[in-house]
Amino acid sequence: MYPFTFTKVSDTREALNAGRRGGRYIAGGTTLVDLMRETVERPESLVDISDLPLREVTVTERGGLRIGALVRMAEAAAHTKVRTTYPVVSEALELSASAQLRNMATIGGNIMQRTRCTYFRDVTAACNKREPGSGCAAREGYNRTHAILGTSDACVATHPSDAAVAFAALEATVNLMGPDGERSLPFADFLLRPGSTPDREQALRRGELITSVEIPAHPRPLKSGYLKVRDRQSYEFALTSAAVALHIRGGVIREAKIATGGVGTVPWKLPTVEQHLVGERPSARLWAQAAERAADGARPLAHNRFKIALLKRTVERQLRTVGGTK
Questions:
Q1: CB contact at 8 A, 212 and 66
Q2: Where are the beta strands (DSSP E) in 140-236?
Q3: pTM of the full predicted structure?
Q4: Structure letter (DSSP) for residue 246
Q5: Which of 35-39, 289-293, 306-310, 312-316 is the least confident region?
Q6: Closest by Cα among 158, 211, 160 to 184
Q7: How many Å apart are CA 107 and CA 320, to the nearest integer?
Q8: Rg for the chain (alpha carbons), in Å?
Q9: Distance CA 11, CA 8 (A)
Q10: pLDDT in tens, 188-217
Q11: Cβ distance 200 to 261 under 8 Å?
């Protein structure tokens, strides 16, 4: 680990001033500390923001849900409003990491976490995300766990967050505060596809701080849930996952929100699957037909072609679980 300075701040103004000077924000530290220990990340200055007042889960005026950036993953998963209103979020959080990490890691840190690509974490390997212009060892290396959607010639790494998949499905908003004031970004615009600049992973400006993630109100009743498929049952990242939310009224699907993880360079929304469902009556046949569109545009690599079929089965299974099989 390389030398760094450490500052603990007690209010937002202090945090923003330190961030503007190039300090890296840290709260739970469950990702950044690991990367520093492996010398993947070498920040010169850390700013501890764990005392900032960003720890509340509140209902918005329009009936949505706002989750503070410093709410612990375990707290958010157990919160009554999260569990009853958006179980897909609670389930995604509970299927993430270990209980110990969920007790430390924050919502803001979770959506900011960096890929688990082994080449990214191996400082001797070529990685455009870690060292722009060095190449992408994963493209020609062992790439079984890598992305098939949203990839580029520069990067094929997946985004690791389960909670981010649920937020993407529900079309959440990320609220930010920075030297230039406050602003909000749709979740779909917050996390960036690699393109030719895979080292730029979020649409954050210098010194900006995540204050909360806000889920908009959705029509009721809303059934939702999260399915994660992985090599082992605990403490493992997804090969594929599916976050599904369905508004079914009068026996007809009025609204469908679906995203998938483990297969994309960012949490991957599935608009063609959603469109296939809206206006239809739930049935096993409908779920299978809609899921066939889940891998549209996929670009598999040498070792992860199996993800195409696995993704379709994952989406179909979760549609059946959430929507029923009549």
A1: yes
A2: 173-178, 181-186, 209-215, 223-229
A3: 0.96
A4: E
A5: 35-39
A6: 211
A7: 29
A8: 19
A9: 10
A10: 999 999 999 999 999 999 999 999 999 999
A11: no
The pair of three-digit structure tokens given for residue 79, joined into one six-digit string: 């919160």
* Among 62, 64, 55, 107, CA closest to 85: 64
Where exactly are the structural domains of the chain? Answer: 1-53, 223-323
Q: What topology is assigned to 223-323 in CATH?
A: Enolase-like; domain 1 (3.30.390)
> pLDDT digit string (tens) for 53-87?
999 999 999 999 999 999 999 999 999 999 999 99
Q: How many residues does this entry show for the chain?
A: 326
**CB neighbour burial string for 144-163, b if at least 16 within 10 angstroms, e if fewer:** ebbbbbbbbebbbbbbbbbb
DSSP per residue over 123-155, as a string? Answer: TTS-BTTTSTTS-BHHHHS--TTS-SBS-BTTB
Q: State the number of CA atoms in the 13 A half-sphere of 3 facing the CB.
A: 0
Give 80's contacts (C-beta < 8 A, 6+ positions apart). none
Q: Starting at the edge strand that comes first in sequence, how are the strands of the sheet with 24-26 ordered?
A: 5-8, 45-48, 24-26
As assigned by CATH, the class of the 1-53 domain is: alpha beta
